[in-house]
Design a protein that fits this description.
Strand 4, helix 5 and strand 5 form a beta-alpha-beta unit. The protein has one domain: Rossmann fold. It has 7 helices and 7 strands; from the N terminus they run H-H-E-H-E-H-E-E-H-E-H-H-E-E. The N and C termini lie far apart (41 Å). The radius of gyration is 16 Å and the shape is globular. Strands 3-2-1-4-5-7-6 form a 7-stranded mixed β-sheet. By secondary structure, it is α/β, with parallel strands linked by helices. Bound molecules: S-adenosylmethionine.
């Protein structure tokens, strides 16, 4: 998938307007690896898009607030949740994350592939960290800055890309568990390629 340089709410709505899912219905592999053993509680999926990750969490018993500024994307997410029998546990909210502050504290705060320039990025990740409940987890998954030079696909604008360590100063009083680049194999018409993502995991002491 190719990326335009910057996408606003209208552009995301247009992108999600087709009948097919823009992304896969399968949860992100790093979410699955990091969250499979967490006991279910209350989660928020920031920039939930078509809710593939929110639906996977709901299937494991989580109550999930799914936040995104694309109502079109979230509508598709609701249909995916209905199809998978978990619509009662996925709660969509249309909101611009640039203005978002948490309405509650969450046992899991997930941010997957949200790529914003500063200062919006700093605001959103600081708000995400603040939203973690005592004993809870923040999980950030994104295209790594190094993907520009060495990886496949993803945004091509360096202003919206970071490394995981770049985000650590935004974590406030959370304890860092990991902040690493990770490789994600991608099947393309030209064969298998590798995208370089990052995973950041942090926790708030109980
Ligand atoms: C690459 S998609 C990722 C979707 C989902 N997290 C996933 O992994 O499938 C990025 C999402 O960020 C959302 N987004 C971008 N900027 C946003 C903002 N300022 N406020 C809320 N959502 C935003 C877009 O609408 C889009 O759904």
């Amino acid at each position: 998938m190719t990326y335009p340089r910057r996408m606003n709410q209208h552009a995301w709505d247009e992108r999600y307007a087709g009948a097919d899912l823009v992304w896969t219905a399968e949860a992100n592999r790093f979410l699955v690896a990091e969250a499979a053993d967490l006991p279910p509680g209350r989660a928020v999926d920031l920039a939930a898009g078509e809710c593939r990750n929110a639906v996977w969490l709901a299937e494991r018993g989580w109550e999930v607030d799914a936040v995104d500024f694309s109502a079109v994307g979230l509508d598709k997410g609701i249909r995916l949740a209905e199809h998978r029998g978990v619509a009662t546990r996925v709660h969509p909210t249309v909101a611009d994350l640039g203005d978002w502050s948490a309405p509650a504290r969450y046992d899991l705060v997930l941010v997957a592939y949200l790529h914003l320039p500063r200062p919006a990025r700093d605001r959103v990740f600081a708000a995400a960290a603040t939203a973690v409940a005592p004993g809870g987890t923040l999980l950030v998954i994104g295209h790594d800055l190094s993907n520009l030079e060495r990886g496949y696909g993803g945004p091509q604008d360096p202003a919206v890309l970071t490394t995981a360590p770049d985000l650590v100063p935004l974590l406030g009083d959370l304890d860092l568990v990991r902040a690493d680049p990770v490789e994600r194999p991608v099947t393309t018409p030209e064969g298998e390629r590798v995208a370089i993502d990052h995973v950041l995991r942090a926790v708030r002491r109980a």
